[in-house]
Amino acid sequence: MGKLIGIFLLALALCHLSHSEQDWWENGNFYQIYPRSFKDSDGDGVGDLNGVNEKLEYVKDIGMKGVWLSPIFQSPMADFGYDISNYTKVQPEYGTNEDLLALTERAHSLGLHLILDFVPNHTSDEHEWFQRSVANDSYYRDFYIWHDGVINSTTGERQPPSNWISQFRYSAWEWNEQRQQYYLHQFGVKQPDLNYRNPNVVEEMNNVLRFWLARGIDGFRIDAVPFLFEVEIDPQTGTYPDEPLSSDISTCPDPDDWCHLNHTFTNSLPEDIEIIYQWRELVDQWTSEHNTDTKVLLTEAYTSFENLMHMYGDGLRNGSHVPFNFEMLAGLNNKSSASDYDYYVHHWLSNMPKGVYANWVLGNHDNPRLASRFGAQRADLMNIFLQTLPGIAVTYNGEEYGMENGYVSWEDTVDPQGCNADPTTYLQYSRDSERTPFLWDNTTNAGFSTANHTWLPIGQSYADNNVAAQLAAENSHLKIFKQLTQLRQSEAAFIDGSYVSVVVKNVLVYIRAAETGDKYIVVLNIGDENVSLNLGTLFDDLSAKLEVVVSSLHSDIPNGQIVNANSFEAKAYNGYVLRLTN
Q1: What is the pLDDT of residues 484-521, one digit of tens each?
Q2: Torsion angle, CA of 97/102/105/109, rounded to 10 degrees?
Q3: How far is 316 from 295, CA to CA, in rounded Å?
Q4: Is 449 helix (H, G, I), strand (E, B) or coil?
Q5: Rounded to whole angstroms, how far apart are CA atoms 104 and 286?
Q6: At the N or C end, where does the chain have fewer CB atoms within 10 A?
Q7: In 10 A of CB 92, how many CB atoms?
């Protein structure tokens, strides 16, 4: 095969059903909408459900199957919906329960499936359950994690029962004056952790799922799974154990920062996975009893690779349909090599259990946008990568047209992670930049809202770069994305095809092929130098002529052009989808 650098080949039978037998979510495209920033229908500066409804045709048009809404339940908005005060009522600034039902019905009429964000780890401190727990109501007394604290032997003062740290910085314990005890909050002070060792809590949350399933919701994205359980209290000491310092304390010397500790007692316990199995049984039972389309679970878990694999199931019980693949999201950055990209693909495909589907997540509301994290020059390459891998693709709204992070000043910062920092360091913590409003057109506020002031500033230039402009252009990031999703839906190679890859210098090349239909070669030049490739030496039975089907915006190769497989030049930062021709 000639002398190649970094060759790694793996042929893998990936899918287990034919195209006609696949369920709606299998090999599906999921689209995350951050409703607060998607479309404001009533001019108050905040996106809402009617705004989402208004733009559902767009979501359908870009090739999505499932739509996941970030939290829209009633909340005091201390963490913008991740602090829920009522799980069965829509937050008024987003609309009403009737608006949500109308959105669900419209989505179904378009062939879309609607998924809600389920936040089970904690409630708002304004939730009735917490208020009644504070009041020592007999039923709700142990709905949350409470403790008297310990007396400092030196000072004689009462202090938290352990050194546990909130992910939003500082102690994870907060004193409640009325109850005269500390409560646990692994996120914000206004987000007390529920006690999942109390079976009544489990059943109440099961009832939340049943409530929305009965109203036509198609599934749930389950938030912060690794935080659901904490170690049980030590019966001998009557308190909780301190967590050890991080193994590499030099990378996180600040004792108030979550990363300062190794969270052996508060994160990724076996019980976290067990309850996912229980929730899967619940939605499967609902699907069977009501003869509906499959109701799916998507799980958010920044945890070990082994735990992500267990999230699928244990061989006897099923778990998450889509345990979000954060290994790739966390592992890749703008310095990563083609070999790194290839490693994360093979690592997941080679280790996932039989009978499940891979999934690929490159961006979300908690991480800098793709075009900002990997460089705007790689915007199309990253989408080509995402849309041509086997399995399920998850896209954060805006990534389809190369949206970048918006600038948010300290004065405009609202994310509690940023606000808990200071004017010099807030950008390291704040997630506001990836949550700035969607850029629809070149009118006021990029067509997001007619308000004088939006909840976050637009944060970037939009006069010539917006959805309307990209749809009108002869070619654009958005049109490239639509071409990719059309391929995923229509070509057997991308529906149930194998994946065989080669790395040459800093270029990842892989073939997608099925028993029927055309064969495709994907070429991704991750690096900053053009690379000449003799593709004919990389794969057997490769024809000399290839047709360009999709390529990056600045590839300078029009779709339909025939190129020579034996002398193909991959431009720096560009991606290509090539079809084998006879």
Answers
A1: 999 999 999 999 899 999 999 999 999 999 999 999 99
A2: -160
A3: 19
A4: coil
A5: 18
A6: C
A7: 9
Using DSSP's 3-state secondary structure scheme, residue 243 falls into: coil
CA distance 130 to 139: 11
pLDDT tens readout for residues 274-317: 999 999 999 999 999 999 999 999 999 999 999 999 999 999 99
Q: Pick from 480, 544, 549: which is nearest to 518 by CA? A: 549
Enumerate the β-bridge partners of residue 564.
545
Q: C-alpha 267: how far from its chain's center?
A: 19
What is the topology classification, in CATH, of domain 124-193+235-264? Oligo-1,6-glucosidase; domain 2 (3.90.400)
Q: Which helix (H) or strand (E) holds 296?
A: strand 296-299
Out of 223, 399, 434, 496, pick the active-site residue: 223
Rg value, the chain, Cα: 25
- Tell me whether residue 223 is one of the annotated catalytic residues: yes
Please give the C-alpha separations between residue 501 and each of 273, 280, 341, 509, 524, in angstroms, as whole numbers: 33, 34, 11, 6, 11
Comparing CA positions, the residue from 575, 578, 556, 554 lying closest to residue 565 is 578
Question: Nearest 5°: CA angle at 298, between 262 and 499?
Answer: 95
Contacts of residue 437, Cβ cutoff 8 Å, sequence gap at least 6: 37, 38, 47, 406, 445, 446, 448, 449, 454, 456, 458, 459
Catalytic residue among 48, 117, 300, 340: 300
Q: Are 148 and 162 in contact (CB under 8 A)?
A: no
Please report, as a single letter, which amino acid is at residue 430. S
Residue type at position 224: A
For the chain, helix, strand, coil in percent to 5 are 30, 20, 50
| Residues whose CB falls within 8 Å of the CB of residue 200, separated by 6 or more in sequence, listed in order | 139, 143
SS3 label, residue 393: strand
Active site residue 342: no
- CB atoms < 10 A from the CB of 122, how many? 28
